[in-house]
Amino acid sequence: MRGWISTVVTAAMVVLTLSGTATGQAGWSTFTHPALGFSLAYPDGWEVSGEDGSIAFMVMGPRPAGVADLRLNVNVTTDRVPADMTVEQFEAVSESRMGLLFNGYTRLRTDRTTVAGRAAILRYYTWKRNDGLDTTATQSGQLQRDAQLLLRIIQTFRP
Fold first, then answer.
1. First CA to last CA distance, the chain
2. Where are the beta strands (DSSP E) in the chain?
3. Residues near 67 by Cβ (< 8 Å), separated by ≥ 6?
């Protein structure tokens, strides 16, 4: 899929690799990147952090129930998928990079899905911050609800 930007969306424990105008719902805001053109909707009250190094967009939500020092978040970074590579091949290559980028990286699950009508891979994973805190809030009593909210945000992504 020549010319499409592959976007990796990180949502605390979720990575989504896409090949290829967000629509949220009542009580949601929409961010559109001025240079890259992608958009993403998120619940009102979440804090937009903007660009930071390789991160093109970051939005921070509330702390998961019963978990100190973590906040729900969605990060968007971009990378080009080579024209001769499938989404699955790109995901396999990016998987090897994850272990180099994240301390204690552990893949939990991978799902194939579509976002904005394009093939996508949803990667669930956990890793440890430099202070040793596990980034997946498994002790949250609302983990399932939090994960569903993050997925709803990711599904608003439009290239």
1. 13
2. 5-11, 14-18, 28-32, 39-43, 47-48, 55-60, 73-80, 106-115, 118-126
3. 137, 139, 140
For residue 144, list its beta bridge partners: none
Radius of gyration of the chain (CA): 15
Number of H helices, E strands in the chain: 2, 9
CATH number for the domain running over 5-154: 3.40.1000
Across 23-44, average pLDDT: 87
Residue in this structure with the two tokens 């896409």, named with its chain if needed: 18
Q: Is the dihedral of CA 108, 151, 17, 73 positive or negative?
A: negative
Q: What is the pLDDT of residues 109-146, one digit of tens each?
A: 888 888 778 777 777 777 787 777 776 655 556 777 87
Going from the C-alpha of 103 to that of each of 49, 52, 100, 148, the distances in angstroms are 23, 20, 7, 25
Q: Where are the domains of the chain?
A: 5-154
